[in-house]
Known about the structure:
7-stranded parallel sheet; 5-stranded parallel sheet; alpha/beta; 9 helices; globular
Amino acid sequence: MSAAGVLTEPMTMSEYGSEAKMESGAGVVAAFVEQRDGSIRATAHEVVGAAAELARAMGGKVHALAAGGPGLGAECGQLGGRGAEVIRVAEGAELAQYQAERYAHIVAGMVAGGGYQAVLFPASALGADLAPRVAALLDVPLASDATGLEVVDGGLVATRPVYGGKAFARVAFDASPAVVSLRPHVFPPGTRPAAGRVEVFTPAGGAPAGGRAVDFRAASGGSVDVAEAEIVVSGGRGLRGPENWAVIEDVRDALGPTAALGASRAVVDAGWRPHGEQVGQTGKTIAPKLYFALAISGAIQHLAGMRTARTIVAVNKDADAPIFNVADYGIVGDVFEVAPVLAAEIRRLKSQSG
């Protein structure tokens, strides 16, 4: 093993499996590491942090599991600081881009060879596709979109929202490993003053490739992803139509290039905005530093996706709108009158500070 902790001789899948069994055991929790273009996604830090907390309660350890193109192992070393004691990385040119069937068989093989008590995935678009495939291959149940984890009588119990967030179910598992996907921006990333040991291996052949990706294209406009942005400006059906969306865009533009646009479910269902901007139970769960809810009433489905924002500013002409129950700052007024003033004041303050 090199000084960096990366295996210089790649292992086959069978060799990997036998080694994993020797090092794993009761109480060991695995966390799947999502990557894009060789870079670790923010959700990976959250999942590893949640796995570290769970392993601490079980008296066990944390292993991170990743798959990607050549060089991913070096990038994964950072996860040791989140609590992963061992980071196992399947590397290969054919793994550079996500392919559902291939990833599912590789990850399921890593899990089966590891003897883990629980395996955590992000409930991201990729995780929502991968986690049930892995659970099916392992023939174990899956609890999706969990917002809480606890250990009861030595076993894992996951809490997840049901009925659009109006109630919560506590789910126990009757098979091992327990497979759970975690709602993004709910579990904080952990910290650990230690480095994890990175083990890189080359998967043995035989995993099905399934469909083949021939091209990847970024969303038009190069806008900031609402799930990653530190500032989000969202609009609701109080804007009356897509032709009035410029009111929201003006506030976003005043805040600067790091701000993203969001939308309520009603707006997306009406076809005014793309689904990628939807914030809520059936859209994206976000936790920005600053969130503007403009002409959004605050239905429970929407609140489930943004209530963890650090600061919430709401504008609505209905003083009894539910959004005001979670807002840090609220303005009762017509969005068509308030938003232009808000944008102008933001620009004025920024010009004075700049």
